[in-house]
Amino acid sequence: MKLANIYGFLKKDLQDIENTLTETIQAEHPILREASLQLLRAGGKRIRPVFVLLSAQFGDYKHHMDQVKAVAVSLELIHMATLVHDDVVDNAELRRGKPTIKHIFGNRVAMYTGDYILARALEVITTVHLPSVHRTLSKTLVKVVEGEIAQIEDKFNVDQGLRDYLRRIKRKTALLIATSCKLGAIASGATEKQANQLYRYGYNVGMSFQIIDDILDFTASSKELGKPTGSDLIQGNITLPVFYAMNDPAFLEELKASFQNAKEIDENNLKHLVDLLSKTDAIEQSYQLSNLYLRKALHAIKLLPNNKAKRTLQTIATLIGKRRS
Amino acid sequence: MRNLSMESTELKFLIENKIRHSYVEKYINKPFIDQEKIFILHYFYQDLQMSATKKQQYITTIMLVQIALDTHELIPSKDTDEMTETEKQLSVLAGDYYSGLYYYLLSELEDIDMIQILATAIKQINEYKMKLYNENIQSIDELFTTIQQIESLLFTQVARFIKVEDTIISITKEWLMINRLYQEKENIQNQQFSYIDHFVQEQISDTDKLTTIHIVDEEIHSRKQKLDELLVHLPYHFIVLKNTIRDKVKLAYNTSVAEEG
To answer: Key word Metal-binding present in the record (chain A) (predicted)?
Structure first.
């Protein structure tokens, strides 16, 4: 079952959000507009708006509809802005199988586009006059960037611990999903307790989501990924499967040798490392940790009222665990 | 009254502390913090009814936006040797980090309206930057207007929001533009990239650097005259501002027009 099929009842609202996203990034400058729209057209799962809308079902959704949608639009724009800048950071030529803004227009246009989209996101969210929304979101934004800086700091460093990895993916992915859930709840007037339960759900789902992304980087084909298999390792990023594989002395030795004085791992090295990794139980162990986070996510929303949104959140958690692309 | 310049220096240290990041500092230079811009903001805020700490927080916030924009301006258009990969990566992220901090500080102050004012300014500045970068400029006057907007929009938007007098806003625009023109002139003299030089070379073939410098000098001269006229008509209680600006931009003290008391 596809993820999008399970929240069909949100289809109309998601379409509204899609339309608002398009309207919001109509820059005056044609290239700025084209770059922003291209990013939007590239698609994506719109997972953050989905979590905002689902979490908002625990409050007075209809009464606070405008506020909820502003939060959803803003969070997706923030995510988009970080993607444009990430492509400059990672020197990425492709995203979701399509050329990046950096690749087509150069670094400078990518920087202006990212800054423009972030500014639009903040213009949209300032239509919501709830201080707690801004406190939560701004803290998250700072932590997300801190996480990205830490990722660069930890590149090609085999002397880091599992905790470093978990802290990195928390900031890189889980916090924005957790914040989407929490802000959806706050914007719809759900209780503080419910907002916190949804935050914990989002955090755990986000951790699992990123772990699976990191697993797929080794197990999916480059066609499925829209980028080369093992691209994290090429860039020196030590992800969960690599951590587990490092318990195998042969893999660790090979990895250390590859990382020595290396800014990038070449194709042959990578293939050898991926082969070695596949002979360990690293992928299986990674799935186990992902499943642990999913169980925690389900536990976090156990006490929420039984409604369609709760059932959908439960299904999403289950499907994320089975995700293969 | 405490010396405004001294207070600006103190604020500069406060901002430096706020943006400190040990790993980032290892690879990229400390961002340039324009003390004259701090001075301008200090001047905007000095008569507002709020605590000194709160004023400092607002000035820090606005300067963080400026620093974020300036940091992203360092990213070269193409990946070349002028910046290492790590320097480039950290410049992108440092700019984003400063943007996050400005939003965080204003959310702590619970000033949602100011968040919106700054976001709108950033949006507009990026529109102008795209226009400049993509060479959608038809005339030298349009070029100067675009550069002036990039330099001053953040400050003029804030000034209008907190209801600073129109004359002070006009003075701010001219002062910031003169500073930028001096910077462009220095870039031309040091064989560094200058948008003005680039535009002149594209428009007038077979021209030399001296011609461009002459055009910039003419513009500086004309802006200084305009600034001088604006300063002369300021009432006497603006004496600190008048003298500071005259000293900074090396304006002769205009005695030909009686200053209004």
So the answer is: yes
